[in-house]
Design a protein that fits this description.
By secondary structure, this protein is of the alpha+beta class. It has helices at residues 3-11, 14-25, 40-52, 124-143, 168-173, 226-244, and strands spanning 58-64, 72-80, 87-93, 113-115, 118-120, 151-157, 182-184, 202-211, 215-216, 258-264, 273-274, 277-286.
């Protein structure tokens, strides 16, 4: 069977793929860092779907996490045996970032609504469509009677959006993967499938806490303005990092290391108080070089 025939086999499942993705998006899978329930309910949905699609080898590796109601964060591994001992892993993630301001959404974020041939909903792109595509792509392979050369493993992880400790890092510690394995992570791409990323930048998320001394806005000299100190530190740090990391690499978009201030927490409800505490966050993405 050639690639065209295999693509046609996938296309036969289009309606079921759309329905499955929309149904999955209705299940909120935001991590506890953002006051979400975690991935347990979505994981149960995926396991049920996989069984309906005919997959038999399904393992669940649960990472303990007291912050979620179930006390566990699931990681699902579906395996299909190939003709050799080599392994190919397709890794996607079940969790999503929070929806933010619900009023900013044209359609409810956890509905999975189809409009104009597109699916709208939190996580529809990152990473729902890739997760569903990997399931149905492998299903098409099996329905067509093709036994792959490699053992193929579909890996659906938790906690990708906030550090990976309960997801891919947990599985690595369990020695699920071995040296010589190949892995595909469909978490970014072009609409026509023409782009493949061969490596990612290194990432660091930094939370900064500034402790000063609170006072009234009319007597700033009696306090230490944590907001002002934090702002000065943030600008100085960002400027120095951008001056230091100047290497460019056209394989990346953008082709530079990036250093960006992101989240800024509230430091009090009223406008006439010099804050004694300020917290904010920084997002660093550094080229491998």
């Amino acid at each position: 069977m050639d690639a065209r025939s295999l693509t046609q086999a996938v296309a036969k499942d289009q309606n079921l793929m759309v329905d499955s993705l929309c149904s999955m998006l209705k299940i909120k899978a935001v991590g506890p860092e953002n006051e979400g329930p975690g991935e347990a309910r979505r994981g149960k949905f995926i396991i049920s779907l996989a069984r309906k699609l005919g997959f038999e080898s399904i393992d669940v590796y649960e990472s303990p996490d007291k912050r979620v109601q179930t006390g566990k964060r699931p990681n699902i591994v579906i395996r299909v045996k190939g003709t050799t001992n080599r392994n190919l892993w397709v890794v996607t993630h079940m969790d999503t970032v929070p929806e933010g301001d619900p009023k900013a959404w044209k359609y409810p974020p956890f509905m999975g609504k189809v409009v104009g041939g597109k699916i709208f909903g939190r996580g529809s792109e990152d990473n729902g469509q890739e997760l569903i595509a990997s399931l149905f792509g492998l299903r098409a392979l099996l329905k067509s009677g093709i036994i792959p050369e490699f053992n193929i493993g579909l890996v659906f992880v938790s906690d990708e959006e906030h550090g990976n400790a309960h997801g891919i890092d947990f599985l690595i510690a369990k020695k699920i993967f071995k040296k010589g394995d190949l892995a595909v992570v469909p978490d970014h791409g072009e609409p026509d499938g023409s782009a493949i990323s061969v490596v990612e930048k290194s990432i660091a998320w930094v939370d900064v806490e500034v402790i000063g001394k609170q006072t009234h806005g009319s007597t700033p000299e009696r306090g230490v303005n944590a907001f002002e100190v934090g702002a000065r530190f943030m600008i100085t740090a960002i400027d120095r990092l951008r001056e230091r990391f100047t290497i460019t690499d056209e394989l990346f978009e953008p082709p530079i290391s990036t250093f960006a201030p992101t989240k800024c927490d509230s430091n009090g409800p009223n406008i006439n108080t010099i804050p004694g505490r300020q917290t904010f966050s920084l997002d660093f993405r550094v080229l491998p070089e």
